[in-house]
Amino acid sequence: MNLTTVISTVAATTGTAVVGSIASQDTKSRWYRKLRKPGFQPPAAAFPIVWTALYADIAVTSASAIDALTEQERFDERRNYIAALAANLALNASWSWVFFKAHRLVPATAVAAALAVSSADLTRRTAAANPVAGAALSPYAVWTGFATVLSGRIAQLNK
Known about the structure:
Largest sheet: none
Membrane topology: Multi-pass membrane protein
Number of helices: 6
InterPro entries: TspO/MBR-related_sf (IPR038330), TspO_MBR (IPR004307)
Subcellular location: Membrane
Distance between the termini: 48 Å
Main location: membrane
Family: Belongs to the TspO/BZRP family.
């Protein structure tokens, strides 16, 4: 992998993680503690572990896909991939702000659903460039799908 590409994708995912984590600090707020949550919600300690692994996964697999598209001279696909990655990371960071800061449960579910669709698309694009990287990114699509179900159930329990 090209070092410049890796640095770029690491910087983008790190920025996303920082922006999202600023909003997510409200997990200790009275509002969040009082929310009814489904029994299938993972323990709080699981979220930073899972997200750290997923952000590393996104950074590495995206760098691999971008480099593969460059090497294959598929420059339109490369440009579209980078745009899809940027959109995905923007959706990713925005969920925490809509959920934790704005306390908007239904809109947060909509953001989560858009993120799940975007993550599936990013996984598809990654697999088209590098099948191994696409397979490695698939847990991200699965996790964001699960997050959508979780967000929806929290919204339903707290009408």
